[in-house]
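Illustration 12: Ribosomal silencing factor RsfS.
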Amino acid sequence: MMDSQQVEALIVSTLEDSKARDIQVLDVSKLSSFTDKMVIATGTSTTHVRSTGNAVAQAFKEAGEPPMGVEAGPEPDWVLVDLGNAIVHVMTESARAHYQLEKLWNIKPGDGASLDSANG
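Figure caption equivalent — predicted structure in token form:
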């Protein structure tokens, strides 16, 4: 079984390989009973959002840790991949701006949130 750092590393590397943008890893372990990490990334189109979500799910299947669930509509502006101790949200820019998950979780710099330096 992968530890939380291995899970985070595989998520981030898969998102980077898929050319997702603005990857943020939020530590929500003190705020949530159902997951420890929330990862949010932006895709350039609904096709890119879908393929990026599928890439994350596939990476974990190949690692022997298949996702608990993948949620997406037919033309998704948001794909959610539930990995148990981590939840990955891949969203179009407009969906991300609309839902503002970082604000929803009230994460401020220094509260355990880390910004992916590869996109800065």
